[in-house]
Amino acid sequence: MSKQHQNKTEIIIPAWIWLFLFGEERAWIEGEYLIIETRGFIGRHRRYVEICSLDWYEWLLDSDTFSFYTDNTRCVFYKERRETRYYWYAYNWQAHNKRVERVYVGKLETLSLKEITQKVMLLEEMALLTREEITRRRQNSKRQITQRKQRLARALARRSRANQSVT
């Protein structure tokens, strides 16, 4: 052990004591603000962060979940890691259908109130659909993306041939 680490004493606080004293943090969106609430033995504290402000993006960097409520649904947004980047996904549990729906929301840089609201509306719409209808829509969407990629590849091939004939 190095001299630098010999004099340091680590105090490890068990998780249950930490939660008792400082509580847990919950976050949700109301209007154009993210409300961050910390509750514990010491008390209750609320902080309001305007969406798309610098504080909003700083909070998103450090946090990995928040909720969005409407009259019809409650969606939970989670930050998930894919390779070297983080992406946000929205989840909605439908008890009457006994299923969880998930939609891609976007990267940290593009997470705005408009994007969040659109995804919540999509999840609400999906709650009304049957599993077969959702599968059919996803397949149609994948088919459309494949068709766009094929059109783009053909256009690039034509452009490449045109450039070769010029030179």
Describe the structure.
There is one protein chain. This protein is α+β, with helices and mostly antiparallel strands and 167 residues long. The radius of gyration is 23 Å and the shape is extended. Mean pLDDT is 78; it is low at 1-5. The chain has two domains: 12-128, no CATH class; 131-162. It is built from five helices and seven strands, in the order H-H-E-E-E-H-E-E-E-E-H-H. Strand 6 (85-94) and strand 7 form a beta hairpin. It has helices spanning 3-6, 15-22, 54-62, 113-128, 131-166; strands at residues 24-30, 33-40, 43-50, 65-69, 74-82, 85-94, 99-107. Strands 3-2-1-4-5-6-7 form a seven-stranded mixed beta sheet.
* Proportion of residues in helical segments: 40-55%
Beta fraction of the residues? 25-35%
**How many strand segments?**
7
What's the N-to-C terminus distance? Answer: 68 Å
By DSSP (H or I, 4+ residues per run), the number of helices equals 5
SSE order = HHEEEHEEEEHH
Low-confidence stretches: 1-5
Please, how many domains? 2
Q: Structural class of the helices, strands and pairings?
A: alpha+beta
The major sheet is characterized as: 7 strands, mixed
Question: Radius of gyration, rounded?
Answer: 23 Å
User: Could you tell me the mean pLDDT?
Assistant: 78
> Strand arrangement, largest sheet?
3-2-1-4-5-6-7
- Overall body shape: extended
